[in-house]
Amino acid sequence: MSRYITRLRVRRTYRLNGAPVGEDRKLKRLYHESMTISLDGRTDNATVYLGQFILIEGDDDDNPFVAQLLKLYYDDSGKKKTALVQWFVRMCEIPHNKRKLLGRDSHPQEIFYYHDRSCDNEVDAETILSAVQIEFVSPEAPFPEGKSKDVLFVKLLWDTKAFRALSSEIMQPPLSPKSPPPPSRRPPARVLPTPDLTVMKRATMSGALIRGSMSTGKLISEAESLHSASKLSAAKALSARRRSRATSGPHVRKKLDLYKILDEPKGTGKTLTSKLNTSPTGRISISIRLTPLTEPFSPAKQENDGESNEFFGLQPLEEPPLSTGRTPRKREATPRRASLRGQTAEEDNEDSPVLTAPTPRSKRKSAQLVSSRIRKQLNLLGNKDDLQSDGEDGDDDDDCFVPTKIDLQSSSDEEVEAKMDSEDELVVKRRRGSRTPRSTEKTHTSARTPRKTPSKKNAPATPRTPRTPRHATPSIPSRSAPARKPGNVLEEARARLHVSSVPESLPCREQEFQDIYNFVESKVIDGTGGCMYISGVPGTGKTATVHEVIRSLQQASEQDEIPQFRFIEINGMKMTDPHQAYVQILQKLTDQKATPDHAAALLEKRFSAPAPKKETTVLLVDELDLLWTRKQNVMYNLFDWPTRRNARLVVLTIANTMDLPERIMINRVASRLGLTRMSFQPYTFKQLQQIITSRLNRVKAFEEDALQLVSRKVAALSGDARRCLDICRRATEICEHSAGLQKGSGLVAMSHVMETLDEMFSSSYITAIRCASLQEQLFLRAVIAEFRRLGLEEATFQQVFVQHQALCRVEGLQPASVSEGLAVCQRLGSCRLLLLEGSRLDLLLRIRLNVSQDDVLYALKAD
Amino acid sequence: MTSKRKSTALTEAQCVSLAQKILRERLCQQRLPEQPVGLESQYRHLLELLKRTAVHGESNSVLIVGPRGAGKTMLLGCVLRELMNLKEVLKNVLQVELNGLLQTDDKIALKEITRQLHLENVVGDKVFGSFAENLAFLLEALKSGDKSRSRPVLFILDEFDLFAHHKNQTLLYNLLDVSQSAQAPVAVVGLTCRLDVLELLEKRVKSRFSHRQIHLLNPLSFTQYVEAVGSQLSLPQDFPHPKFCDEWNRSVTKLCEDKSVEELLRRQFNSSKDFRSLYMLLFLAVIRVSPSHSTLRESDLLEASRLISADSKANILHGLSVLELCLIIAMKHLNDTYDGEPFNFQMVHNEFTKFIQRKSHTIHKFEKPVVMKAFEHLVELEMVRAVDSATGKVQREYQLMRLMLEHGQVMEALQKYPQCPTDVKQWALSAFA
C-alpha cells in the first residue's frame, strides 16, 4: 500500500501568498497568484505560481495528474483553497480503445493537452503536489533525446475523440523561466504549426532546459476563455465542493482510468522510484517529485547551464533500461560519476549529518533492506567514496527527504544540481537492481529482486511473480494452413448455426434488450450507479443480450451520444475462488495484479474516492451464484460499491435462478442488490424458430417442417437456444451424410431431424441393456426378481446372486461362479445401470437399480 | 528379430516365439487394429467431427460412451491416426490428453493442459503460477485465438465422469464454454463408461455441451464374435515363415469350428461381450503354445478358460485344513438354520462338537483353543467377517460373524478337496449326518 501514502506520509501545508491580485465580485472570489506548499518539519517551502505546470494527486501515485495552474482562490466559504486548472492527460489515462488513434507509440514522457468541456477543472488546491516541467514539442519534431525523466512533453491535444495538433494559440513554449506569472500579457510568440526553430534548437541541444513551469499571458488567456466557456454553474461548483469536503482526503481524480500501459514505463524519475517503493522508500518519490519544483526558482539558473549540461549528460542512463545486463551499464556510469564526485562529495558530507540524523520514524525492515541492497550494488562500483556517500544517500532517501534543503538559499545551485544528480543516479541504480527492464524477453535477470517490494501496478513487467516467465503472452499458436471456408450450403448453414457465431441481431429479446439498454444508458448519462439482476435458465440469451446492449452503447458513445464508459466482465465460473473476483476486476480496470485482499482494498478506495473525470464503469457479473461465500462479502461489496456517491459503477448480474437473492443472500446483500430484476423466460417454439431463421438468414438449408419440429421439441423440453442450434447443426450433418448415399432434396428434412432428436434425447439405457451380454441381462432380471421378492428397492449381492443362479438354471446355462457374478455386477455398476456400494463388501454389497424396473423389463422383453 | 535372408532357415522354435510376439502385441492392445470392428458408423461420425474442427476450425464437443472394454480409446486412437495422416491436419492441430484418474482436480488438470499446449508460461516441463493465474492465463490464451487463425486444440478427457466431480466443474464449464463461443477452436472429446454422465453435469455446463454422444454398445452376434476370435488369432500373411503361418492359421480355423471350443467361447460371450476379457482368455491360451506343440490346441483354450473362470474363494478353500473346513461346514449349517443371521464362535464350536461327538471315531478331537486358532485363521482369510467393526467391547468368542461364502462355493470346494473324509462330506450334505 506504500504508494498511497503520498498524502499521509508527508503533511503539506498550503498557503496562498500575498494580497489577492484580482477579485470576481459575482462569485465573491479573491484570486491569488501563488501558493506556498510547505512540508511538515521542514523550514523551506515550495511555491507554485499561476501558469505553472503542476502535478495533482490522483489515484495513481506513479502518474499523478498533470495540469496547468490557472487560478487560485478561496472559495466563497473563504476557507477552502481552490485551484482552477487546465488538465493534461497521460497516455495511460486515455481509454484503451482510443489509444490506437494516436497511430504511433506514445513517448513515455508524453502527455496531451486535455480538451474536454465537460470535465470539472476546479480542484482542491491542497491536492497539488508540486510543479513539473513540461516542454512543448511541435507535432513534426521528434521527441528530444536525453532529457530528464522529469520533463514531460506535449505534442498533441486530446479532445476525448481524437488527437489533434496543438495549436500555438493554446500551447506556447514558456519563455522566461524565471519571471513569475505576470498579470500583464505577453505578446504571443509565433511558433506553430511550423516547427519553431527556437524550440527545436533547445530540444536538440538538450543542454538548455526549458523550464516549462512558466506560462505566458497568452496561454492563460486562452485557457481562461476555455474555462469561462465551460464554467461551472454556481450550484454545480457548490455541490462539487461539498462532495470534496465530504471525503476525508481531498483526492482529486481526473479520471478513473488508471490504465497503465505496461510497455510504456512512465518516464519521470518519480515514477521510476515509486515503482520500487516499499512503504519507507515511498519517501524517495517525494524527494524526486519535488526537485523540479525548485529548479525554476533557483536564482542562479542561467549561469548553471554548464552544470545542467553535465547533469543531463548523465541522463541517457535513465533511458528505459535496455536488455543488456546491469553491470556493463553501471561501469559506463562510473567514470562520469566519478567526475562528478568532486562536486558532490563535499556536499554530501556536509549534508550527511543532517540527513542521517535519526528521525523519529523508525526505519522499517524493508527500508533497511533496500538501502543495504543499494549499498551492495554501489559496491560494484568499487569506489569507496561512492560507497560511503551513496550509503548516505540511501539513508537520506529513507529519511524523510524533503526538497526543502534545496530551497535554502545558502546551498549553491551547483550543489543542488549535483545532489539531484546523485539522487537521480541512485534511482537509476535502484531501478536497475530491482526492476528488470521490460525489454528483456526471456532472461531472468534481477536475482536480487526484492520479493517484499513488489510493485503491483505493473506486475507482468516487474518481477512481482519472479517465478512466472515474464511476458508470457497468452496465446494459442496459429495454424500453418488457413482454415477452410464452408464449401456448400449445408456447411455454410452449419457455420451460421454454431452457437459461437455472433448473429447480426438478437431476435426475440427486444424487450429485455430495451430494458437493459435503458437502465445502463440512464446510469451512464447520469453518472450514477446501480445494480440489476438478470435471471433465466441456461441458453436463454442473458449474456448475449447484455453483450449486445454493451455493444450498442459503445457505438453510441463512439458517436458521442452518451459519455464514455468502461465495460468489464467477470464470470463466477471462470475463477477459482470467489475472492478472485476482486483480482479480476482490478486487473481489467487497471491492469494491475494484486492479491485478493489487496485488490479489494484498492477497489474500495477507487470506488469511494471522488474524481471529477471519472467515467462510468459497467460491470457484468456472470454466474453470480458462484460468488457466494459464507460471509457473502464478495457479493456485498459488488452491490455496495454502486451505492457510493462517487463510484459511478453499474453492476449487471446474471444467474440462473429467479429467487437467488431471496434464497442465498443475507438481507443486507439482497437489499443492496435492489429490486431491479429481470427474468428471461425460456424461448417459445416460435421464438426458437425465429432465431434459427434469422441465423440462417436466407441460407436455405432446412425444410420448414423440420425447423418447426426442432423448435417445438426444444421449447417443450427446455427452451434452451443452444440446444436448438446444436440439434440443427447435427441435423445438417446427418443430412449431408445421407445425401451422399441417396438422392434427396439436399435440404434438411423431417427424417433427419427425427434421427437427430433420437440420437440426442433417447435414453441410452435401453439400448445399453439390449446390447449387454446374456449374463448381464440375467443379472438385471435377477435384481428385479429379488426386489419383487423382498418388496424393497435394494438387495445384497448375495441375495441377487441366488436368484441369478436360479435363472441360469432356468435358461439352461451353466451357473456362474461367484467371481464371475461379481464381475458381471461390477460391469453393470460401471455403466451405472446399477448403483453399487464399494466392492470391498463382497457378498454383502448392496445393489440398487438406476433405471426403472419397467424400462429394464421392456428392454429385455423386446429382445 | 529375423531378417528376410534367414527366413527360410527359421527354426520351429523361432517361429513359435515370433508368432507369440505378434499375437501378444495384438492381444495386449499395444497396437491399434487396422480398422475398428463393428464401429463403422461411430468411426465415421467421430472422424467427420474432428476433421471439421481441424480443417474448418469449428468448435465441437462430443462424448464417447460405452462400457469398459468396448473400444472407446481404440476408436479414438484409430480416428486420430487417420486424422493425423491428413497433410492439412498434421501440423495444424494441438492435442491435449487428460485422464480423470490422473488429473484428480482442476488445478492439476490446468497445469497439465498448459504444459501440453506449451503455452508461454511453461519453462521446460514446469508450469509456473498459481491456480488462479493459470486459469486466467489459459482462458486468455484461448480467448485470444479465433476460428480461422489459431490452431485447433483437441481436448481428450479420458474418464470424463471424474472431471464432473471437480469443484464447480470449472474446467468443464470453461472448456465447453470455449467450444460454444468465438474463441480458439477446440474439440472436447470425453470418454466415459457411465451412461448417466450427462446427469452429472451442472445445468450450465450441460447447456454448453453439444449433446453429441457416440455410444459404443456392441450388438455383436455370437458368429461375429467367433469370427473376431479367428481373425485375432490368425497370423498375418507377411509372416516370415509361410509354411508355419499356413499351418497355424489352419489350426485356428479348425479350433474355431471345434464343438468344445465353441461352447467355451459361448460361455465367455454370455458372460461378457467385450473384447478385453476375450483377449485375456486368448492371451492365456497363446502363451501355452511351445515348440513341443507348435499350434494352438483346444486344450490350451480350455485350460485358459478354467483359469479365467475359476472362483477365487473356492481356490482358497482347497488350501484349508480339515478342521477349518469343518468349521466352514458348521457355519454353513448355522446359516441354513438361522436363515443367514450372524453367528459367533461359540455357536460354531457347539455345532462342531456335536458333529465330533457323533463321529468321534473318524475325526480327531480338537481342544477349544486349537479350534479358536483355526477360526481366527478363517477370519484372517476373510472367509468370515465380523458384522461390525466395534471389536473391542465383546469377547472374541461371542463376536457376531458372517460367513462370506456362498452355499455353492462350499459344496464345490468339498467336491474337489483332496482326500476329504467321507463323514465330513456327508455332514456337509446334511446337518444330521
From TrEMBL, chain A:
Subcellular location(s) per record: Nucleus
Compositional bias annotation for Acidic residues: 388-400
Record field: compositional bias (Pro residues): 174-186
SUPFAM superfamilies: P-loop containing nucleoside triphosphate hydrolases
InterPro entries xrefs: AAA+_ATPase, AAA_lid_10, ATPase_AAA_core, BAH_dom, BAH_sf, Cdc6_C, ORC1/CDC6, P-loop_NTPase
GO (cellular component) term, any one: nuclear origin of replication recognition complex
GO terms classed as biological process: DNA replication initiation; mitotic DNA replication checkpoint signaling
PANTHER family on file: CELL DIVISION CONTROL PROTEIN 6-RELATED (PTHR10763), ORIGIN RECOGNITION COMPLEX SUBUNIT 1 (PTHR10763:SF23)
Any single Pfam family the record assigns to this protein: AAA
Single GO MF descriptor: DNA replication origin binding
Source organism of the structure: Triplophysa tibetana
Protein name (database record): Origin recognition complex subunit 1
Source organism superkingdom: Eukaryota
UniProt similarity note: Belongs to the ORC1 family.
Subunit structure: ORC is composed of six subunits. Component of ORC, a complex composed of at least 6 subunits: ORC1, ORC2, ORC3, ORC4, ORC5 and ORC6. ORC is regulated in a cell-cycle dependent manner. It is sequentially assembled at the exit from anaphase of mitosis and disassembled as cells enter S phase. Interacts with CDC6 and KAT7/HBO1. Interacts with LRWD1 predominantly during the G1 phase and with less affinity during mitosis, when phosphorylated.
Keywords: ATP-binding, DNA replication, DNA-binding, Magnesium, Metal-binding, Nucleotide-binding, Nucleus, Phosphoprotein
Record carries keyword Nucleotide-binding: yes
Main location: nucleus
Region (Disordered): 169-192, 290-486
Protein task: Component of the origin recognition complex (ORC) that binds origins of replication. DNA-binding is ATP-dependent, however specific DNA sequences that define origins of replication have not been identified so far. ORC is required to assemble the pre-replication complex necessary to initiate DNA replication.
Domain BAH, residue spans: 46-169
From TrEMBL, chain B:
Matching Pfam families: AAA_16, ORC4_C
Organism of this sequence: Triplophysa tibetana
Ranges for domain AAA+ ATPase: 58-220
Subunit structure: Component of ORC, a complex composed of at least 6 subunits: ORC1, ORC2, ORC3, ORC4, ORC5 and ORC6. ORC is regulated in a cell-cycle dependent manner. It is sequentially assembled at the exit from anaphase of mitosis and disassembled as cells enter S phase. Interacts with DBF4. Interacts with POLQ.
Single GO BP term: DNA replication initiation
Family: Belongs to the ORC4 family.
Gene3D superfamilies in the record: P-loop containing nucleotide triphosphate hydrolases
Family matches, as SUPFAM superfamilies: P-loop containing nucleoside triphosphate hydrolases (SSF52540)
Transmembrane segments: none
Main location: nucleus
Protein's cellular compartments: Nucleus
Protein known as: Origin recognition complex subunit 4
Superkingdom of the organism of origin: Eukaryota
GO cellular component: cytoplasm; nuclear origin of replication recognition complex
Keywords assigned by UniProt, alphabetized: ATP-binding, DNA replication, DNA-binding, Nucleotide-binding, Nucleus
Protein's job: Component of the origin recognition complex (ORC) that binds origins of replication.
Disulfide bond is among the record's keywords: no
A GO molecular-function annotation: ATP binding
